[in-house]
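Long-time lurker, finally posting.

We've been working with GNAT family N-acetyltransferase (Nocardioides caeni) and I want a structural starting point before designing mutants. I don't trust myself to interpret raw outputs, so I'm hoping someone here can both generate the structure tokens and explain anything notable. Sequence follows.
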Amino acid sequence: MLTTRHGVRALGSADLPAFLELTDEDPVVNVFAVHRATTTNLEPRWLGGEMWGRFEDGDLVAACHVAANLVPVQAGPEDAIVFADRALGARRTASTIVGPQLAVEAFWDRVAPRWGQARDVRWDQRHLAIDDVPLVDPDPGVRASVRGDLETLYPACVAMYTEEVGISPEVGGGADLYRARVAQLIGRAWSFVRYDGDELVFKAEVACASPAAAQIQGVWVPPHRRGEGIATAGMAAVVHQVRARIAPTVSLYVNDWNTPARRVYEEVGFIETARFATVMF
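Top reply, 14 upvotes:
Generated this for you. Predicted structure of GNAT family N-acetyltransferase:
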């Protein structure tokens, strides 16, 4: 194994124990990184990129996931600047920079003059978590999605993604890949739905998971059904089911300006544990 006492290098499978020790410093915030590391064994061909590590006196002190999502891991502003300098030496492959606020800000300040204007920047996102029973009763109609739900679930996923990100996941020929991702989550029993008759009125997914935590994404209620309490009871059900069979802590992050969503999560019992930021290209 290539050793480094100081500086940055790409991590490999032999580094996995040290990487997991690093992420264990905050296993809930780092759930994405843990999920990616354990499912790929830190192999670039499975990562679709690399996991960089920064070392001091031979110890791994920070990391950075560099693929479609660029994610600082246990990185302070100084670490982020070091990773940014390495990133500037290669072509940008990331479509999103996301993670703890201070690290993302430091990274972006360094690369922005060379990487150009971002499509959207969200500097204040609340990272929330719950590790106990929800404060409201779960909706008994919420269940894990099955393959037969795909035809109604897929359009809802596209609608949610477009509303949240500002661009359709189908742009540029991405429909097949996105549909496969939705089907994959169904197959893992990481997708949840609620129907009112034949109408899909609530959905959410687990984006990634580890033994410590599961991160929720894609929470959505059709616009004409919002304000009925569907999301609150639905999220309580998701928390209950995820904690029962996937991981003991449920997390997510939400834009600071999304007051209705933040109110839902507060009513369910989520509490703020960190601040995130996202830069999208």
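Before you design anything, note these points.
The longest strand covers residues 120-130.
The first helix runs from residue 16 to 23.
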